[in-house]
Amino acid sequence: MSSSSSSSSCYCSSSAPSPLKMAWTDENVGRRFFGCSKYLKKGDFVFHCKHFRWVDKSFPTLRDRVWSMYAEIDALKEKNEEFEITVSNLMKKSKKDEELILQWKTKAQDLEKEV
């Protein structure tokens, strides 16, 4: 990380560096940011100078990523079912083709006996 992106100053005091923090809200799990170094929350009272800057670009929430994976899994399951049906149909056709080949071989042998 370069020095310009590894620190930032609060508006309430130019000498108070903003620490690099990580968000743990549902919307921003793991996303890094700089915030006021004097941030203090006591009950409903919150003190800080409102200095805030994201380090990371926005990215999908963990919940969104999990739902996306579930959707992908469902799509893959559906494709797998289609492939299983196709394989089953091909195996049935193969068995019928083998039976036809056997019938033709039997007919050919019968014709050879006649000659």
UniProtKB/TrEMBL annotation:
Protein's UniProt keywords contain Transcription: no
Coiled coil spans: 73-114
PANTHER family registered for this protein in UniProt: ZINC ION-BINDING PROTEIN (PTHR33248)
Name of the protein described by the UniProt record: GRF-type domain-containing protein
RNA-binding found in the keyword field: no
UniProt keyword annotations, A-Z: Coiled coil, Metal-binding, Zinc, Zinc-finger
Domain GRF-type as annotated: residue spans: 10-58
GO molecular function ontology, one term from the record: zinc ion binding
InterPro entries per UniProt: Znf_GRF
